[in-house]
Amino acid sequence: MLRAFQWDLARQVERLDHLLALLPRYADWGYERLYLHLEDAVDYPSLPGVARADAYAWRDLEKLVRAADARGIRVVPIANLLGHTQYLIKTEAWRDLNELRDPVTGAALPIGQICPLHPRTPELAEKLIGDLAPLCTAGEIHVGLDESFHLGKHPLSRAEIAEVGLAGHFARHVARLHGIVAARGLRLGFWADMLALLPEAIPLLPPHTTLSAYDWYYHPFAQRPRMELYNFSEYELAPALRAAGIAYWACPMNGAFRHEVAPVWGERLQNIAAWWRRAQAVRADGFLVTSWEPYRLALDTTTLMDAAAATLWLEPPRGDDPASLLAAGLRRFAGLGAASARTLARGLLATDAHAFAGNSRWEINTRWDSVGPRRESALPHSAAARRLARLAQSPALRTPPLASLAATLRFQSYLAARDAFVRQAASHAARLRRLAAKRADVSKILARAQEAAVAFALRLRSARKDAREMWICSRPADTFADSQNIAVLAGDAARLRAWQNWLRAVARRPAHARRASPVLGRWTLRFTVHHFAPAWQKVVVEQQQPDGTWRELYGRVTIEFRARAARPHPAQLRLEFACPVVDPDAPLRIATRCVGQIAVSHIELTDGVVTREHRPLRTRHVLGTPAPTCGWPQVDWTRNTDELPLVWN
Question: pTM for the complete prediction?
Answer without folding.
Answer: 0.97
